[in-house]
Amino acid sequence: MKGRCEYVLLALALVITLILISFNFDSLPSLPSIRGSSEHGTTVSKKYAVVSETFSDDYVPGALVLAHSLRRHNSKSGSLPFDLILVTFASEQYKNGAEKHLSPRALELLENAGWKIKVTDPIKQASFITPSRFKNNLSALRAFEHTEYESVAHIDSDCLILQDITEPFEYTKGATKFWAAEHYVKPNTRRFNSGVWFIKPSKETFDDIKNSRFNKANYDLNLNYPINNLLIKFFNYDRGLLPTAYNLGTNMLSSGKQDLEQWDATIEHARVIHYLEAKPWHKEACSALMDKERCEHAVRLWVNEWEMVKRELGVGKDDFPRAEWLF
């Protein structure tokens, strides 16, 4: 009889516990909007972060190569000194399927490569910005929101890392909070390409730049490159100058003799190649206007990294059916 009572009491206690758990479930905190692998969980344990963005499977090869090359050239004692954060949109934010979004397999590959996926809302362009290919690029400003880090680098997903890039993280701790490389095609103009920059993150700065996008005077350089305009205008006389080696753009290869000479002087010690215009994962990776020999060399550097990515992550033809030439 005593044993039967004990079983009844235990069963009653279990039922009460389950009821309490169910009752309190709704009061549990919601999960953060960052998802990632076990190595790159939601707990921030590093001082620095690299932020990039990808909005469709078409750019995933670039993001995979970027992560791999960052790891290969910047790992200290087997681990990166910074987190990798990739900004994208939720699939439901793409109206009626009119735009592409990241497939489940693409998300899996990106997380396996080390990216922490940050699902966020688009930052809409001002109504007078019409080129459709730039409609999502203000999402790069999300880098300023990551105030949980001391310093953040934004690097476009069409970049390849060739050497260590950690030094400029320290620069942002001084009086100058924004660092970018001078425009390599038009030097001495205080212009820069927005593909690579290092910042001291600030919510106030994020809000100020975001709000400035509705003022047409902030686009006096070229309406075709909205984020370049906003950042140049905002940081014009309050930014640090990085060497061209931190953002060596392939558009130099179609800009004339002077820029070809600058390319030759920089490529051997370049830290970042930025594949502007044609992308190295496209079938036609070099345009007719580009210097063929130099362009093919730059593309080979990217393809070599891609071959390592394929082996290490098990990437196959079925993962990128629209880019069969990569396999």
TrEMBL record:
Membrane-spanning segments: 7-25
InterPro entries: Glyco_trans_8, GNT1/Glycosyltrans_8, Nucleotide-diphossugar_trans
Keyword Kinase assigned: no
A GO molecular-function descriptor: glycosyltransferase activity
Superkingdom field: Eukaryota
Pfam families with a match to the protein in the record: Glyco_transf_8 (PF01501)
Family annotation (PANTHER family): GLYCOGENIN SUBFAMILY MEMBER
Keywords: Membrane, Transferase, Transmembrane, Transmembrane helix
Species name: Exophiala viscosa
Designated name of the protein: Nucleotide-diphospho-sugar transferase
